[in-house]
């Protein structure tokens, strides 16, 4: 009989489940969110709860058997929110526990390839959004941006913008996850945010027009290449990009 | 004139400059607005698939010169505009805080004199740095013929500086750009190279000493306006990388926007040739090739149907196949179908376990090309009796399943895959 650990959806909850699963080390255990758990005849469910000490132990294990790099892969892969990511991470951590730091070199091993691959996708999307976030200035001078990324990249974006827009107040709103990073008077917090009522600054429309004109003008018509443009700015990202309005 | 109209004119005239990178600097820190990102960040891509990273504009498109290839030439009858330093600084800041851009790329036609032009450009960047306390990326064009003191200032305000060579030989310069000579271009370039390297040395011992163009300098060559061969161009780039320590040489396929009896009558910009030059350039910078290995006097042009690494490998079949479990990093990099990332992965993965041909695919190696050039654990997946001709035929079949060699088809394929070279993140 296989064992499935369920967790509350938080990172700490996940790490708690991970610690429990690695401790038991059963051959085909899995980790899923409580909300996603489906009762099966052949699986036993164990609710992991959320235990800071267990979570810390999981991190310790990953960093001591693996490295800082392993920990980053784990964190990024978790943020992917991809189906099966949690169980893939469990397999990866079991391998780390067994092989030590050499596991991260096993790039052709499916367990490693899976987690490294998810981590690369998340890192890639986060990098893309360092460019794709578009702020508008609101009447109170707060900068507001709405994003709808595939992965939960908000925690990776916020530090980037804190470093460069630290003199402003700003909000990055992940409307897909109803979550926001809010930077106000030098403090960064994350909070649930479903919808926002926006009152734009008077100058906003003018600057937006300037940007759209610039964008249109910058293309060389003898080189028009929509396929290449689509490859770089996939259609799914365009609805929140000012210049594609 | 309205700001919007000015911006349109001055962005339109600046767009033929291929440089777009915002990489190589990590400016930033306490106070002020903005920071640079070491790897650079692309913010959008225009309809031609080229990336927008910086607000790329001219300060003015007025020009005292009359270079035949240039859209801003004195005798070109287009509307002229000029932006004030305040307008440039203000616009950059407004765009930057909305995260439209990484910073400013400022170039200009020559208004009044090179010195006057440079002074105004510097004033714009000074405003941006000192009044707006802007720490984002600035790429500043140096105007050939401007005073040395002004050129030195450019390096203090900007992250990257550049002087465009545009035409690869002095002869072509004399023909098409009567106001310029090799000396007026290379003079400031070598001064910048010296200042950049001095400042690097100084900062190694005294951290607080001012940075001079920390992201280095770049240049641009126009391809197809003059008769230079690929070999001449790549040899020039090699010298610029080795002697001038340039960060990037950009290649810009000549777009025939103006008619002139001195210019070739081209129908389309030579995009495939431009692409091959970028590939060859990459081989110089990241793959350890020399220009002489890629092209010699008997073969001065890059092959349009194969990438330059494949051509080199086909001419050097005696060095292949390589055993991926034993060959050095430098050797592996030379196999077609293996790039820098997959070569590094091979080296890392083979420390854990010997690699098979199947493993190579998982590491991201393009097997349909690499298969003729590698073995894994002694296993070879290519042709039994490999010969240059046999491999060529196989490689072409992969490119063109219909079995016909169609250069236009190839051109379309290449055009679609231009990403890495044209956007040029590195």
Describe the structure.
The complex is a heterodimer of chains A (245) and B (426). Chain A has 245 residues and is of the alpha/beta class. Chain A folds into two domains: 2-125, no CATH class; 133-244, no CATH class. Chain A is 45% helix and 16% strand. Chain A is built from eight helices and eight strands. Chain A has helices spanning 11-24, 52-65, 68-79, 85-99, 110-132, 154-164, 204-217, 226-232; strands at 2-7, 30-33, 43-47, 136-137, 143-147, 170-174, 179-184, 187-192. In chain A, the strands form two sheets. In chain A, strands 4-5-6-7-8 form a five-stranded mixed sheet, with helices on one face. Chain A has a three-stranded parallel sheet with strand order 2-1-3. In chain A, helix 1 (11-24) crosses helix 2 (52-65) and helix 4 crosses helix 5 (110-132). The radius of gyration of chain A is 21 Å and the shape is elongated. The mean pLDDT of chain A is 94. Chain B has 426 residues and is α/β, with parallel strands linked by helices. Chain B has two domains: 3-299, Aldolase class I (TIM Barrel), CATH 3.20.20; 308-415, no CATH class. Chain B contains 17 helices and eleven strands. Chain B has helices spanning 3-14, 85-97, 114-131, 148-157, 170-176, 182-205, 230-243, 271-286, 291-294, 308-315, 329-333, 340-352, 357-362, 367-370, 388-399, 407-416, 419-423, and strands at 44-45, 51-52, 54-58, 103-107, 137-141, 160-162, 217-223, 248-253, 322-323, 374-376, 379-380. In chain B, strands 3-4-5-6-7-8 form a six-stranded parallel sheet. In chain B, strands 9-10-11 form a three-stranded mixed sheet, with no helix packed on it. In chain B, strand 10 and strand 11 (379-380) form a beta hairpin. The longest helix of chain B has 24 residues, at 182-205. Chain B is globular. The model of chain B is unreliable at 401-426 (pLDDT under 50). The interface between A and B is large, with 53 and 62 residues.
